[in-house]
Amino acid sequence: AQSVTQLDSQVPVFEEAPVELRCNYSSSVSVYLFWYVQYPNQGLQLLLKYLSGSTLVKGINGFEAEFNKSQTSFHLRKPSVHISDTAEYFCAAVSNDYKLSFGAGTTVTVRA
Amino acid sequence: SAVISQKPSRDICQRGTSLTIQCQVDSQVTMMFWYRQQPGQSLTLIATANQGSEATYESGFVIDKFPISRPNLTFSTLTVSNMSPEDSSIYLCSVEDEGAQGYTFGSGTRLTVV
Predict the structure, then answer these.
(1) Is residue A71 within 8 Å of residue A9, measured between CB atoms?
(2) Residue A29 — very low, low, confident or very high, per pLDDT cuts 50/70/90?
(3) What is the mean pLDDT of residues A30-45?
(4) Which of A7, A50, A112, B14 could hold A22 in an S-S bridge, CB 3.0 to 4.6 Å?
(5) Residues with Cβ < 8 Å from A3, sequence gap 6 or more?
(6) For the stretch A92-105, what's the b/e string if a residue is b when 16 or more beta carbons lie within 10 angstroms of its beta carbon?
(7) Across the interface, do B43 and A42 touch by the CB < 8 Å criterion?
(8) Cα separations (Å) of B47 from A36, A108, B62?
(9) Which of A10, A74, A100, A101 has the highest number of chain B CBs within 10 A, making it the mutation to test binding with B?
């Protein structure tokens, strides 16, 4: 199974500032990568995914992520955050066992 | 993409009792997964449920505590048995969603054991 490391447990950010959430995975074999968001008291919503092809992936709500195979990273970015982006963000990976492995999560708190 | 209906959304249960959580999918799916999310933590896979076979449990989870049923390709249940306060968590089901080329999650069941 994949091992996923989210390097930041908490990220405070001001409204309209950029944000980057860092994620590294363990394996150099073929892997699919995902970012999910969990708003307070809600389930998980898929932000974006990397399956193959272009290493820059665009998702919903203005988020994008870049797959870097040499650094085994899949960092999430947004150029300008809103108050409504306050949530928990999870990076996840799956390889040939079809099981999603999740990182520990990053809490993003957007302040006015 | 698949739509999952998970019930109940929340419950408060007495210790020693059992709770069965249901997940209904609007399309046929091969693989269903059950996760636990303890307070303030990430998601941990409990088991994988394929129709027509026994569920496969991850290390640290056993069938006697978390029996799973998968009677058809659109439905599964997870039972949390003989509950203790340590079982207080959010439990989520998930499916491998071929249409969405990813994994879709139910809205979760927030369980509190008192």
Answers:
(1) no
(2) low
(3) 89
(4) A7
(5) A25, A26, A27, A101
(6) bbbbeeebbbbbeb
(7) no
(8) 20, 29, 9
(9) A100
pLDDT at A61 over 80: yes
Q: Can you read off the two tokens belonging to residue A63? A: 């988020």
- Percentage with pLDDT > 70 across chain B: 100
**How many residues does this entry show for chain B?**
114
DSSP string, A53-103: S-SEEE-GGG-EEEEETTTTEEEEEESS--GGG-EEEEEEEE-TT---EE-
Structure tokens at B19: 């709770």
Q: How far is A58 from chain B (nearest CA, A)?
A: 15
Taking residues B76-89, what's their average pLDDT? Answer: 97
* Count of residues in chain A: 112
Say how far apart CA B29 and CA B3 lie, in whole Å: 11
Residue contact B101–A49, C-beta within 8 A: yes
CA gap A45, A31 in Å, rounded: 20
Contacts of B41 (CB under 8 A, 6+ apart): A104, A105
Could B31 and A98 be called an inter-chain contact, meaning their C-beta atoms sit closer than 8 Å? yes
